[in-house]
Amino acid sequence: TLIASRTAYIDRIHTSYENVLGKNNVDVIKGFARFVDAKTLEVNGETITADHILIATGGRPSHPDIPGVEYGIDSDGFFALPALPERVAVVGAGYIAVELAGVINGLGAKTHLFVRKHAPLRSFDPMISETLVEVMNAEGPQLHTNAIPKAVVKNADGSLTLELEDGRSETVDCLIWAIGREPAND
Q1: Are 66 and 160 in contact (CB under 8 A)?
Q2: Tens of pLDDT along 22-72?
Q3: Cis amide bond preceding 141, omega within 30
Q4: Among 18, 113, 137, 149, which residue's CB has the most CB atoms within a 10 Å radius?
Q5: What is the spatial distance between Cα 104 and Cα 77, in angstroms, rounded to a whole number?
Q6: pLDDT in tens, 125-151
Q7: Cβ-defined contacts of 17-23 (< 8 Å, 24+)
Q8: Torsion of the alpha carbons at 75, 80, 86 and 90, rounded to the nearest 10
Q9: 27, 49 Cβ separation under 8 angstroms
Q10: Which of 118, 129, 130, 109 shows the shortest CA–CA distance to 172?
Q11: How many angstroms separate the most distant Cα atoms in the chain?
Q12: Going edge to edge, which strands form the sheet with 87-91?
């Protein structure tokens, strides 16, 4: 299944990282940590001293601060879906949002990509962004530019309506937040 393949792939990546770190004499200690001083760390109640310390907090998907945000899912949630929804909204303008929207569109769902500014992939070479917009206009997913989410409403039939600040809205079966990542440092 898609979920099993994704999980196996991620496990292989993690194992690869651990092997590289081990070959470079890096000790990996998992737990909750805090600095005691510049060369001392407390991890799960144990004190560790080292000349060089790196705390890799990892990251998690960001979500907008709007009403109804909890009705959307992130990329992890998408890969856990039991079936492909008929109508999907992807909110974001980076490569993860573009990739997800492209894959979902290619699988046959009516797909919408909502971006806050004039185009997706704005940090890329302008030719790439412009070509992407041309392809999306011809083949999908449907691109919604200057689209700033205001709220998500869960309807009686289980569908979701994404409301935008400018009054536009779109009703879908699944909404995916792909607006970036933030450090998991809490």
Answers
A1: no
A2: 899 898 888 888 899 999 999 999 999 999 998 888 899 999 999 999 999
A3: yes
A4: 113
A5: 14
A6: 999 999 999 999 999 999 999 999 999
A7: none
A8: -10
A9: no
A10: 109
A11: 59
A12: 142-144, 110-114, 87-91, 174-177
Q: Cα(78)–Cα(144) distance, rounded to whole angstroms?
A: 20
In angstroms, the CA 15 to CA 7 distance is: 12
Query: Domains in the chain and their CATH numbers?
Result: 2-56 (no CATH), 60-183 (3.50.50.60)
H helices present in the chain, as ranges: 2-23, 75-79, 95-106, 126-139
Name the pTM for this structure: 0.83
Q: Residue 120 corresponds to which amino acid?
A: P
The C-alpha atoms of residue 23 and residue 9 are separated, in whole angstroms, by 21
Instruction: Using only the alpha carbons of the chain, give its radius of gyration.
Output: 20
Q: Which among 158, 160, 154, 164 is positioned nearest to 175, based on CA atoms?
A: 160
Cα 132 from chain centre = 20
Q: What are phi and psi of 177, to 5 degrees?
A: -85, 120
Structure tokens of 54?
């790196």
Q: Which two tokens stand for residue 155?
A: 């309807």
- Cα separation, 101 vs 107, in Å, equals 10
